[in-house]
Amino acid sequence: MNDVVVEMNVDTTVYKTLLESTKAIPWKIDWETLRFTYIGPQIESLLGWSPHSWVGIDDWVERMHPDDRDRVVNFCVEQSKAGVDHEADYRALKADGSYVWIRDVVHVVRNGAGEVEALIGFMFDISERKQNEEKLLRLQRELEELSYQDGLTGIANRRLLDSVLETEWASARRSEQPLSFIMLDIDCFKQYNDHYGHLAGDDCLRRIAQILVSSIVRPRDLLARFGGEEFVLVLPETSLEAARQVAERCQAAIGDAAIPHRASDVSHLVTVSMGVATADPTDGGGQASLIEKADRLLYRAKQNGRDRIVAE
C-alpha cells in the first residue's frame, strides 16, 4: 500500500514539473468561489506578476486591456456557464505597464451531476503571431492601395521593380553574388504606332511582354515594364555571360514570333535592342548605378544600328 502512495506522489511531482517547464502557463479556477487554486510560476517571467498575486477572477479581469475586457469577459463567462470549452485572445497587462498578447485556452470541468465545478486551462504568449498577423494585414492594405502590376501588359510595374531591385541589391551584397540587369527597347516603336495605330501598338507591347515572360526560366528573375516600349529584367546571382545568354534567348524568341513591322528602319519584323549590365554590389555604388549602366549600353546598341545586344 505504501508503495502505491509513493508512486502516486512521484506521478504528481512529475506532472507538476512537466507543467511548470513548458512555456504555456497552466492555471485552475474554482467555479464556486471564482478563485485561483493554481497558476504556473511561468506567469511571473511573462507578465511580471507573482503567482501569489493571482487570487481571484478579478485579478485576471483587471490585468486585461480595457478595450478587450468586456468582450473577453462576457464571452468567457457565457461559455463557462454553458459548460463549453473555449479560447480567447486578449492583451494582458504586464507589471511594467506594457501589454502582451495572450491566448487563453479553457476547459470546463463538471462534477458527477453535470454541474460546472472548475475551469482549467493554459495561457499562451501569442505576441509574435499577432505581430506577424498585423504585418500581413498592413501589407495586404498596401497591396490594395498600390498596384504592382502594369495595367497594359500585366507584368510588374516600375514600383515593384524598384522594390525588388532594392531587395536583390541588398541580398547580393550579403551573398557576394553578381546582380545582372537587362534593359530592352523595341526598335522604331514610334513608327510602329504611326503605321499600325496605337491599339495595335498596345497589342504589340502585350505580345512582347508575354514572349519575355516565357523566356524567363527562374522564378526569382523579374520582368518589368520600365516605361513606354522599354522592359527590364532583374537577374539575381547571374554573371555577365549568363545574363547575355538570357538576352540572346529573349531576342531569339521575339524573332521567332515574327511580328510584322513594315515601318521599321531595321527589319520588316519587330526587333529589340538591349543593354546588359552586371554589378558586384560589394564594390559599392547602388542599384541606380546599375540601371544607368544598362541604359548607357542600350543607347550604344541603338546607336550602333539597333537589333543588337551590348553587354558589359
TrEMBL record:
Superkingdom per UniProt: Bacteria
The GGDEF domain, residue ranges: 177-312
Domain PAS: 11-72
Residue ranges of domain PAC in the record: 86-138
A Pfam family of this chain: GGDEF
Catalytic activity: 2 GTP = 3',3'-c-di-GMP + 2 diphosphate
Enzyme superclass (EC): transferase
EC number: 2.7.7.65
Protein name as annotated: diguanylate cyclase
Organism annotation: Billgrantia bachuensis
